[in-house]
Amino acid sequence: MRLRFETLIDALLPILATLAALAVGALMLLVLKVNPIEAYAALWDGAFGSTNAFAETLVKATPLLLVALGICISFRGDVINIGGEGQMIIGAVLATWIGLTFTGLPGWLVITLAMLAGFLGGAVWGGIPGVLKAYFNVNEILSTVMMNAIAVQLMNFLLRGPMIDPSQAELASKIPQTARLEDAFHLARLAPTRLHAGALIAVILAVLVYILLWRTTLGYRIRAVGQSPHASRYAGIKVPRYMVLALLLSGAFAGLAGAVQVYGVNYRMITDGSASGFTGSAGFNGIVAALFGQLHPLWSIPASILFGALLVGANKMQRMVQVPSALITVLNGLVVVFVVSSEIWRRRRQRRRMAAAPDAEAPSKQDQNQVQKEANQ
How far is the CA of 133 from the CAs of 30, 138, 243, 244, 365, in angstroms? Predict the structure, then answer.
């Protein structure tokens, strides 16, 4: 019974962390002489108050979910991918090049090729740090962050030079953007809103990633390497190979997120010169969504919707109650800090329970099954 209660607390920690972050945000609103109830009501209305608002929330959640799926794979393999921003950019660059080059092909074929190009581009960009980690013991956090910087500079060079919109070049303008994709190359809209087929693709992929991780030998080996590289090596698993594969797949989903942003939302690649100018920081927010979903592909779906709602609703909150834009950034940052901290606390609680297990009374068969289930997740 106690085990069930502890497991319930662990499952609720991300939600409690979010509520705690919103409580701190409410105190900040009070300092600014703003009614927190009115502010959060505006946030809710902006995210879920109408069909169009909910569609915008799902649009914002789509790249978060795709990045989160990759994070679930890499973190389960005990390799940390902080390079989602760069992987999104590379995937988007290649997908955009496909759309601007093969204009004579049917729309469905160009979209398919573009999605594959984005997937493969992100995979290569994520696989490079994977190789460095697996075979040269280079810290993957540093290498993925550095790959972000390289991707940003490459994007700025291409969007101001070889891939710049010809109409901008004729006007001697230096706005970093490509030409607009043809209408036939746009992802299908699912409703008379901006909601596009990319959202449906992301949900389908979440189910497939769950099957991959928990229903296939490949996924078992990735998780085994993440649980214990030494034991996996003793069991005959080629640990370096699966480290590379985990980062490669993680980068692939981030690259696909970049392609979906181009073909489903922007219809061109455009930036202000920074990574977030194109990605909207989805490469980083996707990490938090994955942690909020406890690194489970299916739980990452509602987690991504929640963070999409925070991003969309915060904009209306800013307009309705006239709070500074910096406060919106701080509010989102608070949620990130609290959620990540809750994940660390959850892992410490699990370790304490495991350490205390030998001294405790023998658990029932049902509790043993629950422990095994928790360990598998």
Answer: 47, 5, 8, 8, 40
Q: In the structure, what pLDDT confidence band is assigned to residue 94 with cuts at 50, 70 and 90?
A: very high
DSSP string, 230-289: HHHHHTT--HHHHHHHHHHHHHHHHHHHHHHHIIIIISS-B-SSSSHHHHTTHHHHHHHH
| Better-scored residue on pLDDT, 361 or 339 | 339
Q: Write out the H or E segment, with its range, that includes residue 183.
A: none
DSSP 355: H
- Judge whether 76 and 224 are in contact, CB under 8 Å: no
> For the CA atoms of the chain, what is the radius of gyration?
22
- Give the C-alpha separation, 361 to 4, whole Å: 16
Number of Cβ within 10 Å of residue 186's Cβ equals 19
The torsion angles phi and psi of 267, rounded to 5 degrees, stand at: 60, 10
Q: Mean per-residue pLDDT for 154-164?
A: 94
Higher pLDDT, residue 226 or 3:
226
Q: Are 117 and 106 in contact (CB under 8 A)?
A: no
Q: Higher-confidence residue: 333 or 148? A: 148
Q: Which of 27, 24, 29 is nearest to 327 (CA)?
A: 29
Across-strand partners of 177? 270
Mean pLDDT of the residues in the chain:
90
List CB contacts of 113: < 8 A, sequence separation 6 or more. Answer: 98, 102, 105
Q: How far apart are CA 297 and CA 30, in angstroms?
A: 37
